[in-house]
Amino acid sequence: MYVRRSQFRLPNRPQTPVIMIGPGTGLAPFRGFIQERAWQKEQGKPVGETHLFFGCRNEAVDFIYREELEKYVADGVLTLHTAFSRDQAQKVREHVIYFCLFGLGCAGNEMS
Fold first, then answer.
1. What is the three-state SS of the chain?
2. Which one of 22, 59, 68, 84 is most buried, by most CB atoms within 10 A?
3. pLDDT tier at 5 (50, 70, 90 boundaries)?
4. What pLDDT sits at residue 44?
5. What is the pLDDT of residues 13-24, one digit of tens each?
6. What is the CATH number of domain 18-111?
């Protein structure tokens, strides 16, 4: 069996900015990255900007890590960009991350 070494990791220098995009397909690895950045900041290390673009269908149902992510925002560890494709009068079929990135006025928010 061949096991390939993963290249999916944080940069070696904590001050390097990071942009993470979680389009509703899984947030677990990004949670680990954010936790690592929070720990580095607690240790007094200079930490670069950390942005998470996160999208899903319904904020009330699908945004299950809301409190955790909002704490990182409040602690100055994370800038959170969200979009929820079904939380509006007109159903949006385009990808929610498209709305996050281009600010097209769906139920998107930025928390920093």
1. CCCCCCCCCCCCCCCCCEEEEECCCCCHHHHHHHHHHHHHHHCCCCCCCEEEEEEECCHHHHCCCHHHHHHHHHCCCCEEEEEECCCCCCCCCCCHHHHHHHCCCCEEEEEC
2. 84
3. confident
4. 96
5. 999 999 888 766
6. 3.40.50.80
Q: How many residues does the chain have?
A: 112
**Which residues are CB-contacts of 48 (< 8 A; sequence separation ≥ 6)?**
13, 14, 15, 16, 17, 18
pTM attached to this predicted model: 0.77
Cα torsion angle, 45, 69, 50, 77, sign: negative
CA distance 83 to 67: 16
- What dihedral angle (degrees, nearest 10) is formed by the CA atoms of 12, 17, 23, 26? 30
Question: Mean pLDDT, to the nearest integer, of 45-72?
Answer: 88
User: In this structure, are residues 95 and 102 in contact, taking their beta carbons and an 8 Å threshold?
Assistant: no
Name the β-bridge partners of 110. 81
Enter the tokens of residue 51. Answer: 């942005």
